[in-house]
Every structure is written in C-alpha cells, then in structure tokens.
C-alpha cells in the first residue's frame, strides 16, 4: 500500500442508528459524518451537500459579525408565568429546562456589532430554546433592539428561527406580533434599513409579523418558511402540495422573499446591501 494512501484521512463509516463521536456531526441531509472543526470553518454548512445546519443564537452572530465586535444588550428581561399554564408539565419547568440548555433567559439574543466595519444592531432567535417560540420576552427584546437601532442610527438585522407564538403565554404571545411591528416603524421613520434573514424553520406568528415586514427579506437555502406547516395545509385543503412548497427557493420564485443567500456569503452580501441602503460604500463605514 502506498504511503499517501495509508495516511490519507478517511471518511467516517457511520452505521444507521449509531451515535457519532463528539468530534463529528452527521449531516441531516446527506447523512455523512463531518468533522466539527470543518463545520466551524464552513459556517456550519455541510461541505459535501451544502445543507445549512441549524445554529444557536451565539453561533449565528459569530458567523454574521466581525470577530470581537458583538456587545450584548439582551438578557435582563426574564419570562414569567402570568397564566399559571400547565399541560404535561408546568410552564416554569419548561422554561427552566430551556434556560439550562441554552444558557440564556429566553429564545432571543440582541446587541450591537459590525459587519465588515459597518455598525449594526442585531437580533438572533434561538431555535434551541423551546423551538424559538415567541413569548413576551422575545417581543420585548426585539422591540428594544429596534428602538435602540432607531436611536443610534444603525441598520437593524434580525435572524428569525421559530416555530411560532408560544402557546404557554396564549394571547400575551400573540400581542407581540403587533408590538414588534409597531417598534419597527421607528426605523422606517428614521430612514434606517431593516433586513431580516429567515432560517430553517421560520413559521407561525413570527412569519406573520416582524420576520416579513423588513425592507429586504433574505432566506437561507432550503429553509422552511410559512405560517402553518405543509402537513396541516395539505390535510386542510385535501390536495397535494407542489414540490418544494414553503421552501426558500419556492418562495423566492413566488415573490415572498427577495433573495436566497448562502450563509457563507451573508457577511459580504449584507455589507454590500446595507452600504447601498445607508449610502456608506465599503471603506467608509469605519471612517
């Protein structure tokens, strides 16, 4: 056997149902094992099939912003249980488990940073926290972030990832749809751009409110985007849905989103887009 063949790195041979070691992650689409280090270097996009793996809020902002530029603003508002909601378990128990899992009080992370030198205000939803569901804290943090962006004169970039409104907060959750939309009006009044990035999945009341009222709506490749899920729609209308229904590319073709952009290109795409919208070409933002 030639020495180059002996030392050549081999792909992991993964058996169905077996767990991968901590050094590897199995791509949900192509089922190939990928080195976690390779995923980190590739913005958590599978280098073999291009599938965009889900990111938590911290990972998202690390991919999006200039290194070391992020300054957190969220985290001081904590959810409560005003309705005393209980289904299979009390709502506070669900919150405690999600908080322990993610290390943050709710499904949102906001702050300030820069994208290739351009100052921005950012918000990223965390699907790992109760499916990124929108409760009172999520609505409050997004409203505060929008108000900060308007006051500071910076563009606002939001990354959505959510299963919709949080059922444990009932009507209080639904009220966040109006609250966030009104807060975002302040950006329009100041002539400041608001860009939303729809990741997989973005559904329910989030899609019906702040995620789709942006000046420019960007989607990640293959992202599931919609109000009700495709299975619910199919069962309701009793018809087969078109291939790719509610996926980013289908929605781009039908005019619901403005662009489908590979995550690895988000930073350069947003810098160019925001530079045009704020009349700050590359090289002028840090001046």
Keywords for this structure?
287 residues, alpha/beta, 10 helices
Structure description:
The chain has about 290 residues and is α/β, with parallel strands linked by helices. About 35% of the residues lie in helices and about 15% in strands. A seven-stranded mixed β-sheet has the order 3-4-5-6-7-8-9, with helices on both faces. The protein has a two-stranded antiparallel ribbon with strand order 1-2. Strand 7, helix 7 (about 205) and strand 8 form a beta-alpha-beta unit. Helix 5 packs parallel to helix 6. The longest helix is centred in the middle third of the chain and has 21 residues, at about 170-190.
Beta-strand content: 15-25%
Question: Roughly how many Å is the radius of gyration?
Answer: 20 Å
Helix content percent band: 25-40%
N-to-C SSE string, H for helix and E for strand: HEEHHEHEEHEHEHEHHEH
Low-pLDDT residue intervals, each spanning 5 or more residues: none
Sheet with the most strands: spatial strand order? 3-4-5-6-7-8-9
N-to-C CA distance: 59 Å
Secondary structure tally: strands: 9
State the shape: globular
Q: How many helices does DSSP assign?
A: 10
Averaged pLDDT, please? 92
Q: Mind describing the biggest β-sheet? A: 7 strands, mixed
- Helix/sheet category: alpha/beta
């Amino acid at each position: 056997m030639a020495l180059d063949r002996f030392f050549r790195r081999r792909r992991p041979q993964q058996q169905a149902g077996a767990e991968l070691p901590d050094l590897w992650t199995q791509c949900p689409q192509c089922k190939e094992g990928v080195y976690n280090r390779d995923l980190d270097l590739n913005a958590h996009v599978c280098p073999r099939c291009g599938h965009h793996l889900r990111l938590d809020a911290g990972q998202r902002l690390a991919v999006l912003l200039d290194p070391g530029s992020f300054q957190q603003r969220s985290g001081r508002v904590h959810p409560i249980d005003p309705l005393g909601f209980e289904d299979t378990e009390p709502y506070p128990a669900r919150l405690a488990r999600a908080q322990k899992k993610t290390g943050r009080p709710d499904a949102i992370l906001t702050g300030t940073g820069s994208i290739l030198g351009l100052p921005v205000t950012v918000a990223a939803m965390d699907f790992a926290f109760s499916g990124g569901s929108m409760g009172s804290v999520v609505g409050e943090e997004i409203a505060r972030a929008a108000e900060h962006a308007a006051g500071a004169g910076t563009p606002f970039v939001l990354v959505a990832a959510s299963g919709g409104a949080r059922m444990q907060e009932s009507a209080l959750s639904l009220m966040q749809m109006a609250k966030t939309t009104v807060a975002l009006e302040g950006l329009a009044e100041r002539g400041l751009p608001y860009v939303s990035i729809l990741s997989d999945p973005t559904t329910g009341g989030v899609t019906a409110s702040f995620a789709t009222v942006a000046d420019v709506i960007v989607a990640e490749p293959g992202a599931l985007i919609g109000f009700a899920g495709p299975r619910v729609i199919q069962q309701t209308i009793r018809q087969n849905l078109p291939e790719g229904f509610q996926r980013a590319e289908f929605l781009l073709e039908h005019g619901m989103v403005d662009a489908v952009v590979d995550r690895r290109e988000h930073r350069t795409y947003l810098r160019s887009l925001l530079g045009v919208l704020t009349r700050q070409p590359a090289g002028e933002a840090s001046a």
